[in-house]
Design brief:
- It contains four helices and six strands.
- The chain has about 110 residues and is of the alpha+beta class.
- It starts with a helix and ends in a 24-residue tail after the last strand.
Length: about 110
């Protein structure tokens, strides 16, 4: 199945990841389905990081890519799909940002 999804999205990390999560939500049961998927996805990213795993947001939008993946996976039409989450062990560990990289000028209080 991963090879078929890779054939649609064309990015190698989709094929290489041990696990792909395809988050969806029923648009008939949500007032803000895009936000619901985004929040659920971010929670999965945080949990994966806590477990020493790596993730990435593979955007498929709400377009032809999404339709092709939904068709492949038999996802009913009323379910929204906007991204795929490949999960695996990262090839490299990115260092945390340093205090020197923090730019206090990018924070605005009360007004811009």
């Amino acid at each position: 199945m991963k090879n078929k999804i890779f054939g649609i999205v064309g990015q190698e990390f989709v094929k290489e990841a041990p696990v792909l999560i395809v988050p969806v939500t029923d648009v008939n049961k949500s007032d803000v389905p895009i936000q619901d998927i985004a929040v659920a996805s971010e929670n999965m990213f945080l949990q994966a990081k806590a477990l020493g795993l790596g993730t990435v947001w593979k955007n498929v939008g709400n377009n032809e890519l999404a339709v092709r993946i939904k068709t492949l996976l038999n996802i009913p039409e009323q379910f929204l799909l906007i991204n795929i989450i490949p999960i695996g062990y990262p090839k490299e560990i990115q260092p945390a940002h340093s205090e020197e990289e923090f730019d206090k000028n990018r924070i605005h209080y009360e007004k811009w």
